[in-house]
């Protein structure tokens, strides 16, 4: 009922992937599957679920959405679950000390529709029931989806949150609705799709982050241990907002390598005396 996650499964690009990070109850996973299939979504990815998997309680709660559960994939980390995706949206109700584009589900839906129509892999991140997503998971995303509910009571269960985002994605398929939604987005927000090269995947961005952080550790820039996690998240947010293409990531990694290697003699060399 669950596939192997030894190798990343490439997203078809036709629908966004729903990524549940450390879901706590099997019943909630089943209800998420039910909500997804109602909206035409079937790419479910589970990061370290607490319940054993496969799980009969999830099947019962899915009320017939067995196909989603049968195709669900297990992953050891959020980075592994999103490695093949290009554009990630983190869903959160809490304010974060991060500079991120923040959209309503309706505004995000038009961006997701444009991306998936172009064959770009999109992921929707949902956190555990008790506390939501951790800051490190939010830092992997390019934008935040925040559902504008009653500020004095904004408690949703996991399946309700998935259903709201999935419903808006489904409604955005209507051309008139999509056009109206597009006018509400921040100009230039959440990545205009590049024409010449594809956006970087999460795996490519992770490689850039790891190379940069390794060199910053080596030179002592991240030497203050208690400040390091915040500094790393800030750097990741900076590059995440940039909407880098795969080619731009390769260029940045080449620049880092060149700077580390130090100056070289120009080709064709000038001669000595």
UniProtKB/TrEMBL annotation:
Start and end residues of each tRNA/rRNA methyltransferase SpoU type domain: 17-167
Catalyzed reaction equations: cytidine(32) in tRNA + S-adenosyl-L-methionine = 2'-O-methylcytidine(32) in tRNA + S-adenosyl-L-homocysteine + H(+); uridine(32) in tRNA + S-adenosyl-L-methionine = 2'-O-methyluridine(32) in tRNA + S-adenosyl-L-homocysteine + H(+)
InterPro entries reported for this sequence: Alpha/beta_knot_MTases, RNA_MeTrfase_TrmJ/LasT, SpoU_MeTrfase, tRNA_m1G_MTases_N
Any Pfam family: SpoU_methylase
Domain of life where this protein originates: Bacteria
GO terms, molecular function: RNA binding; tRNA (cytidine(32)-2'-O)-methyltransferase activity; tRNA (cytidine(32)/uridine(32)-2'-O)-methyltransferase activity
GO terms under biological process: tRNA nucleoside ribose methylation
UniProt keywords, alphabetically: Cytoplasm, Methyltransferase, S-adenosyl-L-methionine, Transferase, tRNA processing
Tagged with keyword tRNA processing: yes
Family the entry assigns: Belongs to the class IV-like SAM-binding methyltransferase superfamily. RNA methyltransferase TrmH family.
NCBIfam families: rRNA_methyl_1
Protein name, UniProt field: tRNA (cytidine/uridine-2'-O-)-methyltransferase TrmJ
Gene: trmJ
């Amino acid at each position: 009922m669950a596939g192997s996650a030894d190798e990343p499964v490439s997203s078809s690009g036709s629908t966004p992937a729903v990524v549940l990070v450390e879901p706590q109850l099997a019943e909630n996973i089943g209800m998420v599957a039910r909500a997804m299939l109602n909206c035409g979504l079937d790419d479910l990815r589970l990061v370290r679920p607490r319940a054993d998997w496969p799980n009969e309680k999830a099947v019962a709660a899915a009320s017939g959405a067995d196909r989603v559960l049968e195709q669900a994939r297990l992953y050891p980390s959020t980075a592994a679950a999103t490695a093949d995706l290009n554009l990630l949206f983190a869903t959160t109700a809490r304010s974060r000390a991060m500079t991120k584009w923040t959209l309503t589900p309706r505004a995000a839906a038009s961006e997701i529709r444009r991306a998936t129509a172009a064959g770009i892999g999109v992921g929707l991140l949902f956190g555990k029931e008790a506390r939501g997503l951790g800051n490190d998971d939010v830092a992997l995303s390019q934008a935040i989806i925040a559902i504008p509910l009653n500020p004095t009571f904004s408690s949703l269960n996991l399946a309700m949150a998935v259903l709201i985002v999935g419903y808006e994605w489904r409604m955005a398929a209507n051309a008139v609705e999509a056009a109206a939604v597009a006018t509400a987005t921040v100009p230039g927000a959440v990545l205009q799709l590049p024409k010449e090269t594809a956006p970087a995947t999460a795996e490519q961005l992770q490689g850039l982050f790891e190379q940069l952080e390794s060199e910053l550790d080596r030179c002592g820039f991240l030497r203050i241990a208690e400040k390091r996690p915040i500094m790393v998240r800030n750097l990741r947010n900076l590059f995440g907002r940039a909407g880098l293409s795969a080619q731009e990531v390769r260029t940045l990694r080449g620049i880092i390598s060149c700077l580390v290697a130090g100056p070289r003699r120009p080709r064709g060399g000038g001669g000595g005396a």
